[in-house]
């Protein structure tokens, strides 16, 4: 039966998840808007406990027809209901409710290249960083407790589902992360406008980590002091700094250039 009311209990719960990160985290779920995020999710995780809400128009598209929905609970909704529950300004016609990836403990001896992120506040920036990290061959990302939610609807859209291909460790003590990684033979570099060594003057091994800080404030004093290796991205025309997502892209792909076989 098609859902036609925004007062339907399932619809009201979805709306709550759209607006409330605490509710999503409490119930260990996330919302995926559109076909691409659902397809990305299903390539990495089981379809157990997945539910989809879709419009009749979306059901008639090739993207819908190629989905394997045998074990997925389906709810057809009216267009105005989709507009109500979708986290996107322009809904794609399908919203999926899926379990959050299970949290993991980092095994530092097995880690290769990592990103360490402190106090990243903008979901668009974090999603772009995650997508960049995946494209450059990074597999593990550590987030401080005050980073924005990597599984929020906006961050997921910005990351294009790259979150599902990486190990993301939330609520981390970054000082301990840096120490543990270096104790296992890795080197951690932080970008700093006061650094003397250029990104392009160094040789990065496969077991390398990079730390990036808050959009406005950069790295905190505590993290700056914990770092023994600092680098600067050379810039022209008196440019003071780069957006953190842009800086991450430059650094990650320089590591990629030096480690093509990693």
List the helices and strands and how they pair.
Blueprint: H1 9-19, H2 21-27, E1 29-33, H3 35-44, E2 51-54, H4 56-59, H5 62-65, E3 73-76, H6 79-85, E4 94-99, E5 114-117, H7 123-136, E6 140-144, H8 153-159, E7 167-172, H9 174-183, E8 187-191, E9 197-198, E10 208-212, H10 221-226, E11 229-232, H11 244-258
Parallel strand pairs: 2-3, 5-6, 5-10, 6-7, 8-10, 8-11, 9-11
Antiparallel strand pairs: 1-4, 2-4
Helix pairs in contact: 1-2, 7-8, 7-11
Give a description of the structure.
The protein is of the alpha/beta class and 262 residues long. It has eleven helices and eleven strands. It has a seven-stranded parallel beta sheet with strand order 7-6-5-10-8-11-9, sandwiched between helices. It has a four-stranded mixed beta sheet with strand order 1-4-2-3. Helix 1 packs across helix 2 and helix 7 (123-136) packs parallel to helix 8 (153-159). The longest helix has 15 residues, at 244-258. It is elongated and about 65 Å long. The termini are far apart. The mean pLDDT is 94.
Supply the key terms.
single chain, 262 residues, alpha/beta, 60s Ribosomal Protein L30, Chain: A, Alpha/beta knot, 2 domains, seven-stranded parallel beta sheet, four-stranded mixed beta sheet, 36% helix
């Amino acid at each position: 039966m098609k859902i036609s009311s925004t007062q339907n209990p399932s619809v009201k719960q979805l709306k709550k998840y759209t607006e409330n990160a605490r509710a999503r985290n409490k119930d260990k779920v996330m919302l995926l808007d559109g076909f691409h995020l659902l397809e990305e999710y299903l390539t990495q995780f089981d379809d157990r406990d997945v539910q989809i809400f879709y419009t009749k128009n979306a059901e008639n598209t090739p993207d819908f027809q190629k989905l394997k929905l045998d074990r997925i609970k389906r709810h057809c909704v009216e267009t105005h209901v989709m507009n109500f529950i979708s986290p996107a300004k322009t809904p794609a016609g399908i919203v999926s409710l899926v379990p959050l990836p299970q949290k993991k403990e980092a095994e530092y001896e097995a880690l290769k290249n990592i990103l360490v992120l402190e106090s990243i506040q903008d979901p668009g920036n974090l999603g772009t960083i995650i997508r960049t990290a995946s494209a450059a061959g990074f597999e593990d990302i550590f987030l401080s407790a005050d980073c924005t939610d990597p599984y929020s609807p906006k961050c997921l859209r910005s990351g294009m589902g790259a979150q599902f291909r990486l190990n993301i460790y939330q609520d981390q003590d970054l000082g301990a992360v840096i120490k543990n990684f270096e104790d296992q033979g890795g080197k951690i570099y932080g970008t700093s406008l006061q650094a003397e060594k250029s990104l392009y003057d160094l040789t990065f091994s496969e077991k390398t980590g990079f730390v990036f800080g808050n959009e406005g404030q950069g790295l905190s004093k505590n993290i700056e002091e914990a770092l023994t290796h600092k680098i600067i991205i050379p810039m022209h025309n008196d440019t003071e700094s780069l957006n953190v997502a842009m800086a991450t892209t430059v650094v990650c792909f320089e590591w990629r250039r030096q480690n093509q076989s990693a």
